[in-house]
Amino acid sequence: MVFIDGGHSIDTIKHDLESVLGSGTIILDDFYEEDEFGKNQDISKFGCNSILSDYNYQILPIAGRVSGGGLVRMVRLK
Predict the structure, then answer these.
(1) By CB neighbour count within 10 A (0-12 exposed, 13-18 middle, 19+ buried), where does 48 fall?
(2) Which of 28, 50, 54, 65 is the most buried (most CB within 10 A)?
(3) Half-sphere exposure (CA, 13 Å, Cβ side) for 62?
(4) Measured distance CA(53)–CA(62) in Å, rounded
(5) Of 45, 77, 41, nearest to 63 (Cα)?
(6) pTM for this structure?
(7) CA–CA separation, 37 vs 9, rounded Å?
């Protein structure tokens, strides 16, 4: 099992993910979503959201609040 929770930039997460592809279970942190006030992180710069389009993944149910607005979740690659 690999848990990716290092840097928050897209480039860092993408590099980390590419380094462990082929491993059993891969969990990534920093999947951002809007909160109930419509606030979110800048997913054009941060988080794993934009790199997951090439993968089959499951969003895990637990969410945490992000300072400044938004929610953060973890995802599991299938």
Answers:
(1) buried
(2) 28
(3) 4
(4) 21
(5) 41
(6) 0.91
(7) 24
Going by DSSP bridges, is the β-strand pair 26-33/2-4 parallel, antiparallel, or unpaired?
parallel
* 3-state DSSP of 36-67: CCCCCCCCCCECCHHHHHHCCEEECCCCEECC
Query: Where along the chain do its domains lie?
Result: 2-77
Structure tokens at 17: 């993910």
Instruction: Give residue-wise pLDDT tens across range 43-66.
Output: 999 999 999 999 999 999 999 999
Q: pLDDT for 5-54, tens place per residue? A: 988 999 999 999 999 999 999 999 999 999 999 999 999 999 999 999 99
46 contact partners, CB below 8 Å, separation of at least 6: 8, 9, 10, 30, 32
SS3 6: coil
